[in-house]
Amino acid sequence: MSRSLACLAGTAVLATVLPLLTTSAADAAPEKSFHRVATYPVFQNVPAGTPASAETVAEISAVSDDGRTLVYTDALGKRIGFLDISDPSSPRGEGSLSLEELGDADDQPTSVSIVGKYVLVVVDTSASFTEPSGRLDVVRLSDGVRVRSIDLGGQPDSIALDPGTSVAAIAIENQRDEDATPAGRAKGDLPQAPAGFVQLLDLEGAPADWSLRRVDLDPAVLGAAGIAEPTDPEPEYVSINGKGTLAVTLQENNGIVLIDTATGEVEKAFSAGSVALSGVDAKKDGAISLTDSLAAAPREPDAVAWIGDDHLATANEGDWKGGTRGWTVFDTDGDVVWDAGNTFERIAVRHGLHNDDRAAKKGAEPEGLAVAEFDGTPYAFVGSERSNFVAVYDVSDPADPEFVQIMPTTNGPEGLLPIPSRGLFAVSSETDDAGVGVRATVGLYSWEPGTAAFPSIVSDDKGGAPIGWQALGALSGDPKDAKTLWTAADTVIKNGTLYRVDVSATPARITDSVAVTDGGAPAALDIEGLFKRPQGGFWLASEGATGPANALVRTDDAGAVRERVPLPADVTARLGKWGLEGVTATNDADGEHVWFALQRPLTGEDVVRIGRYDVADGTFHWFGYELESPLRGSGDWVGLSEITAIDDDTFAVIERDKLNGPAARNKRIYTFSVPEDSAEELPVVEKRLAIDVLPQLRATNGWTQEKLEGFTIAADGSLYAVTDNDGLKDATGETVFLRLGQASDAFGAELATTTGLRVSASRAAYGARLAATVTLGGAATSGSVELRDGSKVVARARVAGGRATVTLPRLAVGTHRLTARFTGSASAAASTSTPVTVTVVKAASRTSLAAKGSVKRGKPVKVVATVRAMGHVPSGKVRFVSGGRVLKTVSLRNGKAVATVRLRSTGGQRIRAVYVGSSQTKASTSAPRKVTVRP
C-alpha cells in the first residue's frame, strides 16, 4: 500500500486551514500560475558509497518554517533526505539521515512533518502484519541529531499538525495483509486484528515534555455510521482544521471520522459513499474510448484536506473494493457538496496522460490532495498517482471547484506540499526505475505571473468528450494550411490513428482524429512516420514487430489504406525490432519519391540506412548515415527518429540517444544532401548539425524526455517537434510540443540563396529611367525582391525563372548605393546582392520665352517662360531680364513662369528668361525676344 502524504508544516499548514476568502483567481492581477522551476533527482542525494542505480524515492515531504529546507521520506532507502530550496530553481542536496542507524535495517519512514526546529518522522518498525509497531523520531533540523524517540504502539501511516502546532495527529493504520484470509472471508479481506487507532501528540514545551493520547475508534460508533468493518478501521490519512477538528480517512472501510483534538472524542463518523461513473475508459485495450460505464463503487478515500473549517476534500484513490477516479468535497455532516465524477480522468485524457494500463482498474488514481491559499485564493491540489500530474482547482466555492491548471510530474507523485509563504509548491515522487532512467524526484513549482509552459499540446472535445491521444511519434505539415499539422500515435494506440493539430495558438490543439482502416476494418499499425501528401492522402511508415512487417503505407484523406509497400527482403532479413522511423516525400519531373529512415543499422552494417522508394518504377535506393557514438557502459544507443524533406535532395533527420533525465546527451536535428550520382552501393551522406534540441527540452525544468521523435516544416516554414510519451510506460508521460523557429534560420546553409543586381547605367542625369535586373539562385529562383537605396526600399518586384527587370524610380542627384534583397520564403533563406553604385547628376534644361512683339510704353505686358528637362518637370525660379535690369523674378509652376511687366523706355528691347536651376536641374537662358515699345 502506498504511504499517505504528511500534513503541511509551519506556514504551509496555516494556509491549508484558514477560513475561505471570497477573492477569485480571476480577480488576481497580474494573472498567475504555477511554473515548474526545477526537478531534482533524489538519487543525487544518497549517502556516499551508495550506487547511483540503487532504488531511492521521495514520498512525503515537509518544509521548515522559513520555507528553505525541504525534508522528504525515502522508504526504500530507509532514510529521510534534506534539500536546500533557498533557490527554488537550483535545489541542493544536503544529505540524508539513516533510520537503519537509529533503529533497525527494516525501519521505513512513512511520513514527516516539521515543528519549529524539529523534524517529526513517523517510522514503521513492524515485524509482521500481526505484530505492527512504530515510533516517532524527533530529529533536530539543524544537524539531524535525534533528540527523542516515542513508541507509537502500532504501525503508523500519516501525520498532521494543527494550525497552532500545539498537537500532532498520527494515523496508526495497522494495515491489512493482502495475502491473509480472515475466517469466513475472502483473501485480503477485513477484519484483521489488531485494529488501528489514532495517536494525538501534545507539543507543549520541549520534546522531552511531549505526551501521547491514544484515541480508539469505537466499533459501535463506526458501525452505526455504516462503516463496513467497524472492528478494523484502518486509519489512513489525517488533517486538522482551524477549530482543532481532526479528519481521518478509513480508506479500506470507505469512511471518514471527525475527532475533537482537544478532548479526543469522536464527533462524527460517516461513510464516504459510492459513485457510479459513465463516460470513462474502463478497458485495457490499447484504445482511449470514453464510452464505458462503471457500477457504483465505494470512494475509498486516501488523502483528506480541509477547505476552511466547514468542508473537507478527499482523493478517492480506492484500495481493494473501490476507487472512483475523482475527488469529493464533503461538509462536516458527511453530505457530498461536490464530486468530480468523470472529469478528473478527462483531464488526463485531454493532456495525453491517460494510462491505458490502469484503465480497467482505478484509472488516473487520485491519491494525494492538499489545500492552500495563494494570494488570497484557496486552491485544491489533487495528484494522479498513475497519470503523473497534479490538477489545481480554485475552491473559493467548495460546492463548485473550478479547474485552473495542470502540473506535470515525474512518476508516482505521492507528496503534495504547498509552500505559500514563498509562493512555491513541491511534489515528491515515489516511483524510481534506474533500469529505464526514470528516477524519483522532488519537483518545485513557483507561483508567478503568466501562463505556465505546460501543457504545450491538448485535445479538443469531439462528440462531447476530449479526443484521446498518446505517444505522438510522427509529425507532418499540411501543404495547404500553414496552421495545420498532422501527427500520429504509435502502437500504444492499438489501431492506427492520425490527429489533426491546430498550431495557431498556444497550446497547440488536437482538433480531430482519423482512424486508419484497411478494407473497412481498423488497421493495427505502429505509425512511426507520417507525411501529408500535396496530392492528397498520407504516406505512413509502419514499424513492425519483425523485419518483414515493416512497410510503407499510403492512405487517402479519410485514412483508408490504398497501398502497402513492403521493404526489400534482403533488408528486412537484417532488421531487428528497430525498423522504420520516419517518412517524407518529394515530387519532381520523374514523379513521386518516398524517403524513409531506419532507426538503427542493419545487422552487419556500421551506418544506418536512409531509403528512397521511387513510386513510378517501384525501385528502392539506399544511402548511409553515420550516427554519433552512444555513451559507453550506460545501455545507451543512438538512432534516427524522423526524416523531413527540406527540398528535393536535402533532408533533416532527428538523431537521438536512449538516455533521459540528467543523462540525456543527444537530441539533435541534422541535415544532409543526397549525392546526385554515386558508384558506391551505399554512399554515405555528409551531415551537418542544424538544431541542438536538448537545451529546449531542458528548459521545461522537468525530466528531460528521451523520445524526441516528430519533426516537421509547416507550409510557412515554421519548425515544430514533439516528444513521444510512450503511453507512460517507462516514461513520465509528459509530451513536449516544441516551436523551433523558422526553416530559413535553422537551415540557412541548406536554404541559402544568391541575389544579383545589375543597373543599366552607373552614371545618369536626374530623371533618366534606369533599369535594374535582378537574378535569383540557390534554393530559390522565384519570390519577392526589394530594391533598396541604402536602407530605404525604393521598389519591389516578383522574380520568376530566376530573373526580373525593374524600372527604378527617379533617384535624387548624388551617389546611391543600391542593393537587391530577396526577402526569403518558407523554403529559402533571404539574401542580399552586392551593392551597385549609381551616380546621378543634374539634368540639362531648356528655357523658352513668349511675349508680344509690340507694346505701348508703361502698359502691362504678359511674359511667359517655359522650362523643360528630360524625364521631369523642373522647379525653381525664373528671372525676366531686359539688358542688365531684372524686370521680375517668379517661381515655376508646372514648368512655366508667368509674369506681368511694364516697359517704360521706347524703342526696341531684348528680353530674356533666365532659369536659375535647382538641386535636380541645371540653369539655362532663353533666346532673347525683341519687343518694340511704342510711345
UniProtKB/TrEMBL annotation:
InterPro entries: Big_3_5 (IPR032109), Ig-like_fold (IPR013783), Mesenchyme-surface_protein (IPR052956), Phytase-like_dom (IPR027372), Quino_amine_DH_bsu (IPR011044). Residues 1-28 form the signal peptide. One of its GO terms (biological process) is carbohydrate metabolic process. The keyword Transcription regulation does not apply. Pfam families: Big_3_5, Phytase-like. Residues 468-726 form the Phytase-like domain. Keywords: Signal. The keyword Signal applies. Residues 760-840, 850-933 form the Bacterial Ig-like domain. This is Esterase-like activity of phytase family protein.
